[in-house]
Amino acid sequence: xxxxxxxxxxxxxxxxxxxxxxxxxxxxxxxxxxxxxxxxxxxxxxxxxxxxxxxxxxxxxxxxxxxxxxxxxxxxxxxxxxxxxxxxxxxxxxxxxxxxxxxxxxxxxxxxxxxxxxxxxxxxxxxxxxxxxxxxxxxxxxxxxxxxxxxxxxxxxxxxxxxxxxxxxxxxxxxxxxxxxxxxxxxxxxxxxxxxxxxxxxxxxxxxxxxxxxxxxxxxxxxxxxxxxxxxxxxxxxxxxxxxxxxxxxxxxxxxxxxxxxxxxxxxxxxxxxxxxxxxxxxxxxxxxxxxxxxxxxxxxxxxxxxxxxxxxxxxxxxxxxxxxxxxxxxxxxxxxxxxxxxxxxxxxxxxxxxxxxxxxxxxxxxxxxxxxxxxxxxxxxxxxxxxxxxxxxxxxxxxxxxxxxxxxxxxxx
Length: 414
Ligand SMILES: Nc1ncnc2c1ncn2[C@@H]1O[C@H](COP(=O)(O)OP(=O)(O)O)[C@@H](O)[C@H]1O
Ligand SMILES: [Mg+2]
Description:
With 414 residues, this protein is an alpha+beta fold. It has 2 domains: 4-183, 2-Layer Sandwich (Beta-Lactamase); 266-414, Heat Shock Protein 90. It has helices spanning 4-20, 26-40, 83-86, 112-116, 149-232, 240-264, 267-272, 274-289, 310-330, 367-378, 406-410, and strands at 45-51, 57-64, 75-76, 93-95, 121-129, 132-141, 294-300, 335-343, 346-353, 382-387, 398-405. The chain has a 6-stranded antiparallel β-sheet with strand order 3-2-1-6-5-4. Strands 7-8-9-11-10 form a 5-stranded mixed β-sheet. The chain is elongated and about 125 Å long. Residues 409-414 have low confidence and may be disordered. Residues 322, 325-326, 366, 368 line the site of magnesium ion.
């Protein structure tokens, strides 16, 4: 024969279990099961406190009376009146009058709600999952001395029923919070990238303006000065020999300036696009270097380069420009190949040479390579530089490879 009291208790547990189903947050669970629990453990106030994963804080959810405990979440575990239970020091707390019980009142304890709402009889049991205390279930009555050891045992059964739900809910909330933090971080990074791109755009425009000013003003002035100097050499009172090196220095200065202007003003890029600008730069730079370098430009990228946003296009061009300059200036190469390809959903640009190769990592500390990396980061492209595996001369050559995901490449809204 089943004991009728035990039988009805079993029904209550079943009732709680049924009520739990479909509840997706702590507050709704507490509200829905509080009534059923009150039939097992009569109370004026019930709360569930859940330890956060960091082990330092906890959050309280309550039913019945509203107290300050649930108003300022999360609270420090060290200030909890039931910290001994939450830390696992004791396995339950039972008090006939919590208002005067010294266990709840210590230096720094957040125990004011006990006094404010006269929560006299109190019983607390841990919520345990696989031996770990994840929180506590607490029942309080405004009457003195209401609870017995039997109530504690019943509360334990309820706590065991609730604990796995709360454990799963805490894990889900933590995952949700992590996802939000990650999304926010990504949005921030995207925002920074966007801001930096705008800045690059402005810098590029400024660079072109300076290029034009240098051309129209400084170069024109220097040309006039050189002519006047050349005319001076015709005067009998002036020694042509003394002026000759000065004239030569001026010519060199103007030649350098023309190059600076040319690089500041990627007109070919604006008029014809990245591939043409790269080819133009390769051809001109090799020619002006006076070195016997063979070069090749292989464009197998289809139309992908045409779809590029102008800021991304300028960044790509600048990166390739520096890689080509390095191959000519440092490489002592016989051949330079620039290859544009499309792989899956990415655009790939490679600059390869068969020169002396990068000697060691320390060598790669120049501004040119740093700038290439920064520009690549700004357009969310992957930048790699190292030995050229295709080089016939074993262990030599350099390859710079830039991989740009094409969904970033369009960035039409920038
Ligand atoms: N293609 C290359 N071949 C050989 N050495 C290179 C090549 N590219 C770069 N380097 C080496 O890496 C160094 C750093 O390059 P970079 O950052 O562009 O600075 P910079 O060109 O001003 O020296 C160069 O000084 C050079 O020694
Ligand atoms: Mg360089």
